[in-house]
């Protein structure tokens, strides 16, 4: 579907969903199964997408030596900035509380008693049975197992590229195609989900309170993204490179504009490469770190998911404890690694974060009303993180080469 038409259909789905839920509540509830089918499709593809995306990103490093020299630095940088982004998102949403004062309890049927322990969280990182982990949606364990298995394959000195690498690449392309098909049905799914949700919480009288709550939610996300993009990432750039970060951002602005326009890190990649190399980053480093970053470095997406999940929990009246915030922090950080660089892919991985703390996945139906806009904002932040990461890693390797720091 062409991007212009897709945006138009998304807008129509949002507006139509509010109108149908407000003025045709009975019909909206009867057609709610369409939205459920859309959510089921997202759930169906989420684990294969995570597993294959992570495996593909690691295997594309080609050798364990390259992983040790450049890959480790890249992964450390990506993990650091993504963790900071998620922390900013969690702190911001806790302070503003955009979901407090609006209730989604009209049709909720979930267990409010959520018991988690730190011991359980840590032991789940290494599941004894991978098939059971898949069935139980043990996201953290699946991600860790995928990383370990991929590194094991990468460490073996094959005489030629292993068949498994080719298989993973083909699966990656196929799953991305399938995900794209599912996202093409997002306007219809959004229409049904919003209509059913509005109908279930009171129809027309709930529209204004809902819009006010969504407005607070959008401002919360934008504030958190702004802090990360204009304060944290520039500070990291200056700390490592000791140059004006905003001058560098000005040099790569075309990539950021393209990211906002396309809502896709992958589609922006050619522009990002050109802009980053043109700004002085070593081409060999850029050609390695940027494609990797477009796959696994999703600062904006991880931040957004943390805010969205806590907002949905607040709207359902769920009181989260410290352990739940820790689970959200870890799951959002790691799930972002497997978020495909395509429009609306964050919706897929958000299912993982919601299920990790037992929050109803149906709550996604409300935030879909504004996701088309926030998707562009978070993608621009994702790409900004990639460009600064390439500069920092390139500078670090140059320092090592010149003997100014120990490798």
From TrEMBL:
Localization annotation: Membrane
Main location class: membrane
Bilayer topology term: Multi-pass membrane protein
Gene Ontology molecular function terms on file: symporter activity
Keywords assigned by UniProt, alphabetized: Membrane, Transmembrane, Transmembrane helix, Transport
Keyword Ligase: no
Pfam families in UniProt: SDF (PF00375)
CC per GO annotation: membrane
Transmembrane regions: 7-24, 44-63, 75-96, 130-154, 175-197, 217-241, 322-342, 348-374
Entry-linked SUPFAM superfamilies: Proton glutamate symport protein (SSF118215)
The protein's name in its UniProt record: Na+/H+-dicarboxylate symporter
């Amino acid at each position: 579907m062409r991007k212009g038409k897709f945006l138009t259909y998304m807008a129509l789905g949002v507006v139509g969903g509010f109108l149908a839920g407000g003025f045709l509540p009975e019909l909206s509830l009867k057609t709610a199964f369409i939205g459920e089918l859309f959510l089921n499709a997202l759930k169906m593809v989420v684990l294969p997408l995570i597993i294959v995306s992570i495996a593909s990103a690691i295997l594309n490093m080609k050798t364990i030596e390259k992983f040790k020299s450049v890959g480790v630095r890249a992964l450390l940088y990506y993990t650091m900035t993504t963790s900071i982004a998620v922390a900013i998102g969690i702190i911001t949403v806790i302070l503003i509380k955009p979901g407090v004062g609006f209730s989604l309890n009209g049709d909720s049927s979930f267990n409010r008693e959520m018991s988690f322990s730190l011991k359980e969280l840590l032991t789940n990182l290494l599941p004894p049975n991978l098939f059971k982990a898949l069935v139980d949606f043990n996201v953290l364990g699946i991600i860790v197992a995928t990383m370990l298995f991929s590194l094991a394959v990468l460490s073996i000195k094959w005489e030629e590229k292993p068949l498994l690498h080719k298989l993973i690449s083909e699966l990656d392309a196929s799953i991305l195609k399938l995900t794209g098909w599912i996202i093409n049905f997002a306007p219809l799914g959004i229409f049904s989900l919003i209509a059913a949700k509005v109908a279930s919480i009171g129809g027309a009288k709930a529209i204004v309170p809902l819009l006010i709550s969504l407005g607070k939610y959008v401002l919360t996300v934008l504030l958190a993204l702004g802090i990360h993009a204009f304060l944290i990432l520039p500070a990291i750039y200056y700390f490592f490179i000791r140059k004006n970060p905003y001058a560098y951002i000005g040099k790569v602005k075309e990539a950021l504009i393209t990211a906002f326009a396309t809502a896709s890190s992958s589609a922006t990649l050619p522009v990002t490469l050109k802009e980053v190399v043109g700004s002085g980053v070593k081409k060999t480093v850029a050609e390695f770190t940027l494609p990797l970053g477009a796959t696994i470095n999703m600062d904006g997406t991880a931040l957004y998911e943390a805010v969205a999940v806590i907002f949905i929990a607040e709207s359902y009246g769920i009181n989260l404890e410290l352990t739940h915030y820790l689970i959200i922090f870890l799951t959002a950080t790691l799930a972002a690694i497997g978020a495909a660089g395509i429009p609306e892919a964050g919706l897929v991985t958000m299912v993982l974060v919601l299920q990790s703390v037992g929050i109803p996945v149906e709550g996604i139906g409300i935030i879909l009303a504004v996701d088309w806009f926030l998707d562009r904002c978070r993608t621009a932040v994702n790409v900004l993180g990639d460009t600064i990461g390439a500069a920092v890693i390139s500078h670090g390797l140059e320092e090592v080469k010149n003997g100014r720091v120990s490798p």
